[in-house]
Design brief:
mainly alpha
Length: about 100
């Protein structure tokens, strides 16, 4: 049901946007959304915003750079810190999901 991304982490989009809809997948999806936003709220605002724009809203780094006036490399770095935090914070939940 879920896969790893190119960096060896899990694919957030695949979990959140999976097409199958059973009571179990809906429960897991809701639980994952809850945990994701709790983890996002632990991040500094600039990291959180870059992650949300790029990963959840599919906004390119170039577009984010235009919106914020920040350099693309700075934005990439901020997203990387966000991804590392989220990966660590959501690792246990991910393991529970794939073991089902």
């Amino acid at each position: 049901m879920f896969s790893y991304d190119e960096e060896g982490g899990f694919s957030v989009r695949e979990i959140l946007l999976a097409a199958d809809s059973t009571p179990e997948t809906e429960h897991l999806r809701n639980l994952f959304w809850e945990q994701l936003f709790a983890a996002l709220n632990e991040l500094p605002e600039d990291q959180r915003q870059v992650f949300i724009w790029n990963e959840l809203e599919d906004v390119s780094f170039n577009e984010i750079a235009k919106r914020t006036g920040e350099k693309v490399n700075t934005l990439i770095s901020r997203k990387r810190y966000a991804v590392l935090h989220l990966r660590k914070r959501l690792e246990q939940l991910y393991k529970e999901i794939i073991e089902q």
